[in-house]
Specification:
Blueprint lengths: L1 E2 L12 E3 L3 E5 L4 E4 L9 H4 L20 E4 L2 E4 L11 E3 L21 E8 L3 H4 L13 E8 L4 E7 L19 E2 L4 E2 L10 H4 L3 E2 L8 E6 L10
Antiparallel strand pairs: 1-3, 2-7, 2-8, 3-4, 3-8, 5-6, 8-14, 9-10, 11-14, 12-13
Length: 229
């Protein structure tokens, strides 16, 4: 049975940028990336500069990995790494020249999972809090991924800090149901200065640095039925 990774964008809401493609996998664990190049509608330049990125790039643009990528062992066909080339599916309920409120991607196969490589815009409550009660909106629904079959459909939520996250995070603000795009690495035994002692205790480190792409596997509620789109 194949795990089908489809949407690199599923009906989204406030400023959800999906930055990769999708991948599919069968029961043996072999994944198949899905080329959705023709659906790309946004570039890093279109999305614009973001202040949290200024420390990484003077222009403040978000630079996601490009081309064929292995992310957490899953193959993805990412867009171009060029900041002026349309490389993402940009989804938003806001009216912008480079985004749309939803996108439909043909699939026509069975699959146990849909794997997404994506990110969303930063939470203004966290970046510019108005007071002590202005907390981060963990669990905010930003999008819906709709699996459509020959008959009926199933709807899954895409939530902040669960299935998707921003391109940079404060220390320790990891997601609950998705992982960064980099493969985990063992903690080096040569670290003898006592720095990073908290991370060293786990025996592994996440080498991913901003900008982050979040990998999420959405379970298909009806894996025996072909996903049409």
């Amino acid at each position: 049975m194949r795990r089908r990774d489809v949407l690199k964008g599923a009906s989204v809401a406030p400023m959800l940028q999906i930055a990769g493609t999708a991948a599919a996998a069968d029961a043996s664990g072999a994944f198949e990336p899905l080329d959705i190049n023709r659906f790309f509608n946004a570039s890093a330049t279109d999305f614009g500069a973001r202040e949290p990125m200024r420390s990484r790039a003077e222009d403040g643009l978000i630079r996601t990995p490009g081309g064929k990528q292995q992310m957490r062992g899953i193959p993805f066909l990412m867009g171009s790494g060029d900041v002026k080339t349309k490389s993402w599916v940009g989804l938003s309920t806001r009216s912008t020249p480079w985004s749309r409120p939803s996108v439909e991607i043909p699939v026509g196969r069975k699959g146990a999972y849909v794997c997404l490589a994506q990110f969303c815009d930063w939470d203004s409550h966290e970046l510019r809090p108005s007071g002590v009660d202005d907390i981060e909106r963990v669990g905010q629904v930003l999008a819906e991924a709709v699996f459509r079959y020959d008959e009926g459909e199933q709807v899954l939520q895409i939530r902040r800090r669960f299935e998707v996250g921003a391109p940079s995070i404060p220390w320790g603000h990891w997601n609950f149901l998705s992982s960064t795009h980099a493969q985990l690495e063992p903690t080096p035994l040569s670290e003898a200065r006592g720095l990073g002692w908290g991370v060293n205790q786990t025996g592994i480190i996440d080498p991913a640095g901003p900008p982050l792409v979040w990998i999420s596997a959405l379970r298909n509620p009806e894996p025996l039925r072909p996903i049409r789109r």
